[in-house]
Amino acid sequence: MTDLFAAFAGLHCPGDPLILFNAWDAGSAQAVARAGAQAIATGSWSVAAAHGAPDGEGLPLGLALANARRMVTAVDLPVTIDFEGGYAVDPGLLADHFAALAETGAVGANFEDGMIDGAGLHPLDQSARRVATARGAVPAGFFLNARTDLFLQAAAPSHDRHLADAAIERGLAYADAGASGLFVPGLIDLKLVERIARAVPLPLNVMAFPGAPSARAFGEAGVARISHGPNPWRLAMKELEDAARAALKK
User: Fold this and answer.
1) CB–CB of 110/81 below 8 Å?
2) Is 31 left (phi over 0), alpha (psi -120 to 50) or beta?
3) pLDDT tens, 154-169?
4) How far apart are CA 198 and CA 202, in angstroms?
5) Pairing of strands 18-20, 225-227
6) To bridge 221 with a disulfide, which of 93, 130, 153, 193 should be the other Cys (CB 3.0-4.6 Å)?
7) H or E element in which residue 140 lies
8) How many whole angstroms separate alpha carbon 50 and alpha carbon 46?
9) CA–CA gap between residue 127 and residue 113 (Å, rounded)
10) How many degrees, rounded to 5, is the angle at CA 30 between CA 25 and CA 35?
């Protein structure tokens, strides 16, 4: 696993970002791998939806871990898991859950600072302690991608330097707590992206979606990783539904 951890971490290059076209199960992971992906990532929304469950840890932990294990064994690529809030607030349970995730063979995880019930973010000091707890429960090379939901929980017109500076404050605290990367989904203002990338000593991860800048533009702003979140699942389900409608016409 040490070599796999190092290989995955080495894919995070500011200016030449790792593209993660998010999968949701073993079959979709294999499809993405056949397309030439360097690594496989899940999106919690897609994984939950594929199981008929809502996002926000609506998928039972046991199913989430079993799905992760199946994906890891289905491909010869590093697999990183969107682990939402770690399915726990209690530090002991949080550590147990991250240890269990590491045992699936995953090389990394996203770990968000938003409260799962949607009521804002965990306070900064608590969020940093949670990152430190997760770090202490996984192998040294495990890529802990700390996600801040600041930009998801604020309307786009309010994405300004003050909010970027709040993200920087969190990013610095998460780096000190042992995070391997910083994820800022929802942010597409390239000047703010570059501001954060310059200030936080972690590979910066953004999310691609319709209307977002190109991968090249994000790379020029210092981004090291681009996720596609739930969009691949939505595209696949749209194709499936359209094909079913055509087949069912009489």
Assistant:
1) yes
2) alpha
3) 999 999 999 999 999 9
4) 9
5) parallel
6) 193
7) none
8) 6
9) 6
10) 130
51-73 pLDDT, tens digit each = 999 999 999 999 999 999 999 99
Predicted TM-score of the model (pTM):
0.96
Amino acid found at 37:
A
Tell me, what's the pLDDT at 1? Answer: 75
Query: At CA 229, angle to CA 225 and CA 233, rounded to 5?
Result: 135
Asked if 79 and 23 touch (Cβ cutoff 8 Å), the reply is: no
Cα–Cα distance, 132 to 125 (Å, whole number)? 11
Q: Is residue 203 within 8 Å of residue 225, measured between CB atoms?
A: yes
Flag residues of the chain having pLDDT under 50.
none
Q: Which tokens is 242 given?
A: 């359209």
